[in-house]
Specification:
This protein has 71 residues and is mainly alpha-helical. Helix content is 45%, strand content 6%. The protein is built from 3 helices and 2 strands; from the N terminus they run ααββα. It has a two-stranded antiparallel ribbon. Strand 1 and strand 2 form a beta hairpin. Helix 2 crosses helix 3. The radius of gyration is 12 Å and the shape is globular. The two termini are 22 Å apart. 7% of the residues are buried.
């Protein structure tokens, strides 16, 4: 995403949140649009892992959502 560098400067704490999401998931963490939303992708067959990540991040005080992609 072309906004990665700028988002890091504009949205304080983004790097800390990104690192926490990466540590919890072991997956690439992506920036949505120009930010500040971050997301991790899971294939549908790994929904249980996505729900576990969601629960772990909520327990850490983050606001998270699970969404399905459109087909």
């Amino acid at each position: 995403n072309a906004f990665e560098r700028a988002a890091g400067a504009v949205f304080g704490g983004r790097d800390r949140v990104r690192a926490a999401m990466y540590r919890a998931s072991g997956r690439d963490v992506h920036l949505s649009g120009s930010g500040p939303t971050l997301f991790v992708l899971y294939p549908a067959r790994q929904e249980t892992l996505a729900r576990k990540l969601h629960e772990d991040l909520v327990a850490a005080g983050m606001r998270t959502y699970i969404a399905a992609t459109l087909r």
